[in-house]
Design brief:
This protein is of the alpha+beta class. Helix content is 23%, strand content 24%. Helix 8 runs parallel beside helix 13 and helix 9 (342-355) runs parallel beside helix 10.
Length: 647
């Protein structure tokens, strides 16, 4: 996840914590819809937390337009959650007994009668059905019709400096539908989107790193710069390559042969095939086979300016090149969303599940938990559950802003990484030494101090916090069974005595100061577009690296899908297959020196020299054992082959 270029969904509710949704959010059985007066069942979480009496600006106009999605609960929502848990648990007799997409749909998907009943109810209320998928029925209409259909009034509410429409009470549906409706989205008009109409723009302006560099950690010491932590420090690496990452995380001879990995982001880079091929050739990665990389794209793109479409090109490029660098034989399918909005991102995830396009799905996007609403959380979780019963695992970056206090003022985790049905991937600073030898990792968290004008000292060392791996305790998701007995109570019970989900689950390289080199076509100051390389990091790097490691593990397992991996990941906790990451592995403090172009491209506007301290992640700490920066740790030698025991 890159907070400045492709960070997702930045404009929903920043209000108080969302109400707890037990059941699906806690890897259990979804709660039944509660009665809401005669003949109605409520849809929990459909009134956003910011729609308060104090913020109420009055009723919305009856004629105003509404666009909504009515998500279908399917034949057996409780059975879906239960089966998804059973096939993912190594201790279950049903472990690994996955269903095909068609079998999952036939057993748990919505029936034709349910779809017909939902459509009939919506049209009888005066709404127009605009689309039907396996997951939802989309409708449009006016406010009056929506109010009739969903048993609520739509009012205008102040939210920050803006005004949005939302239900004045929780939406409901006729109980005659017999639980066919999971939830409804779109009744509130606050933007549910990714951060980042319909011609894709050219690549972003060029970005480059200035030297000096280290080729591996410690290869080039900054002897002319001031010391830090009582010693001279190395220059930041130019960017690790696949060879170095494979060595660090115990790839051995595995290549991901026969394994399918999918990547989701918004939009699509127009130069990805050429860039990926150029990068592989330059850095000794295996050449791409014909058809090894393919893209599944929507008919049309929307909101390209609002979402900053070009910023997503680098996200796709990073994800594709990182997966190939670590798992060079894996088949990669990129599934691009039509926009950065939740509805479109959900469609991309659903496309992977409905067609079983891959067994492993890397997702380098997310937003803070306060911006998620329970209706959308339920829709996401249903897709993840269908994936689990098919043997598909979803991996989400945990965020790049630590505890999020500096960026939002509220200590919170990111979403969808907070879902109990996905693997949340945290981040580290990685030291790979001479001969590709793993040296150590710290939790990713950076403090920066600039060089003084006379070059004799670092100003206010260690400086200010800049970024770090996301993590912490969810305020909305109950503690899943697989974390119990592993996650300390001090974390699990930080927000409630009953316990909550803690993020992340596992981790990998993320610190841009010890980052990965990526190659991408960019726009230069003279207007030309050409391939160039730069170092990058963030948990947007950690997620595809872990997805690639899981591809190696699936190969070791004889090609049998790992599926939803968290139960297996936690079952290995405390063993030697993980690097147990702490913030100060050497006991003496760690830092690197960086020299950057002020304009991000060349020396025209000068250079800026700084020291970046490692292992300083806001209030989060990487400690011995499980922690909320790196989870159970990072894959070590033996991790990949440990999956052979679960064939």
């Amino acid at each position: 996840m890159r907070s400045n270029r492709a960070k997702v969904r930045a404009g929903v509710s920043m209000a108080a914590a969302l109400p707890m949704l037990a059941g699906a959010l806690a890897l259990g059985i979804p709660a039944a819809h509660a009665a809401d007066g005669p003949g109605r069942d409520t849809l929990a979480g459909t009134r956003p937390a910011w729609a308060t009496a104090k913020a109420d600006k009055g009723a919305a106009s009856d004629g105003a337009r509404v666009s909504a999605r009515v998500y279908l609960a399917g034949r057996d929502a409780a059975g879906l959650a239960a089966y998804a848990k059973a096939v993912s648990d190594p201790d279950s007799a049903s472990y690994g007994k996955y269903l095909s997409a068609a079998q999952a749909r036939a057993r748990f998907g919505a029936s034709g009668a349910q779809v017909a009943a939902v459509k009939s109810w919506l049209t009888s209320a005066g709404l127009k059905v605009t689309g039907v998928t396996q997951h939802y029925v989309s409708v449009t209409g006016d406010v009056a019709a929506a109010e009739q259909a969903f048993g609520t009034q739509l009012h205008n509410y102040a939210k920050g400096a803006k005004t949005y429409r939302a239900p004045s009470k929780t939406a409901s549906v006729p109980d005659s539908l017999n639980g066919a409706v999971l939830t409804v989205t779109g009744l509130d008009t606050a933007p549910h989107k990714a951060d980042h109409d319909d011609q894709l723009p050219p690549p972003d302006a060029v970005f480059r790193n200035s030297g000096p560099f280290s080729s591996y950690y410690g290869s080039n010491t900054a002897t002319t710069l001031p010391s830090a932590y009582g010693k001279k420090i190395p220059y930041a690496v130019q960017g690790y390559t696949g060879r170095q990452l494979r060595a660090a995380y115990g790839a051995g001879s595995r290549t991901g042969k026969g394994v399918r990995v999918a990547i989701t982001d918004a939009y699509a880079s127009p130069t990805i095939a050429k860039d990926a091929a150029t990068y592989a050739k330059k850095h000794g990665d295996a050449a791409w086979r014909t058809g090894q990389l393919r893209q599944v794209l929507p008919k049309d793109y929307t909101r390209t300016e609002e979402c900053g479409a070009a910023g997503w090109y680098g996200e796709e490029t990073l994800d594709v090149e990182a997966v190939h660098a670590v798992a060079p034989a894996a088949q990669i399918t990129y599934v691009g969303a039509a926009s950065c909005y939740d509805d479109d991102l959900l469609d991309s995830l659903s496309e992977i599940v409905d067609g079983h396009l891959a067994d492993i799905v890397s997702n380098s996007w997310g937003d803070v938990e306060a911006n998620q609403t329970p209706d959308l959380a339920a829709a996401y979780d249903q897709v993840f559950q269908f994936g689990a019963v098919e043997g598909i695992g979803f991996y989400f970056s945990s965020g790049d802003s630590g505890d999020n206090v500096a960026s939002t003022g509220v200590k919170q985790v990111d979403t969808p990484a907070n879902s109990a049905w996905v693997t949340a991937v945290g981040g580290t600073s990685l030291a790979v030494g001479k001969g590709d030898r793993y040296l150590w990792e710290t939790g990713w968290g950076t403090e920066k101090a600039d060089l003084s004008a006379d070059g004799s000292s670092w100003v206010n060392f260690p400086g200010a916090y800049t970024s770090g791996a996301g993590g912490g305790t969810s305020a909305t998701v109950a503690e899943p069974y697989y974390q119990k007995g592993v996650v300390p109570d001090s974390l699990a019970k930080a927000n409630s005595a009953a316990g909550n989900r803690v993020v992340p689950d596992i981790a990998a390289i993320a610190d841009p100061n010890t980052g990965f080199r990526v190659g991408q076509t960019q726009t230069f100051p003279d207007g030309t577009q050409r391939y160039d390389e730069y170092r990058i990091g963030g948990t947007s790097l950690a997620a595809p690296v872990i997805a690639a490691v899981q591809a190696l593990a699936q190969e070791a397992r004889g090609g049998k899908a790992i599926g939803f991996a968290n139960p297996a990941i936690y079952a290995k906790y405390g063993s030697k297959v993980y690097h147990d990451v702490t913030d100060d592995p050497t006991g003496s403090g760690l830092a690197v020196a960086r020299v950057d172009y002020v304009n991000g491209y060349d020396t025209t506007d000068g250079l800026a020299t700084s020291v970046r301290s490692l292992g300083k992640d806001s209030s989060l700490k990487a400690v011995k054992g499980y922690d909320d920066v790196t989870g159970v740790g990072t894959p070590a030698k033996g991790y990949v082959e440990s999956y052979r025991r679960h064939r």
